[in-house]
Amino acid sequence: MSTEMVISFLQLATPFVAFLLGVGFTALLGRLPQNVQEAAKIVAAMVVPAIEQVAQDLSNEEKKQQAVERVHGILSALGFRNINDALIDAAIESAVYLLKQK
Length: 102
Prior knowledge:
This is Superfamily 6 holin (LLH). The protein is mainly α and about 100 residues long. It has helices spanning about 5-30, 35-55, 60-75, 85-100. The mean pLDDT is about 80.
């Protein structure tokens, strides 16, 4: 293999390797506890008002169960794994508290 071929290969492979490193880095960041906590707070802040609006006939416990399922599902879809249920519960309770303050 000539030097020119190696250089050509490296030029072609560099963007792909950079992309893979970026994806890997993003996945690692998603596993950091602080990032999971922030994501849970943001998702719960979106889910709680939506459930309050469309599920007015449900009990508070039923609304909370729906919120837990939706927050967990969204976080899983975003790539977060092994999400602590207590973290989701706290994020939902915080979102409910803030909603009632308005």
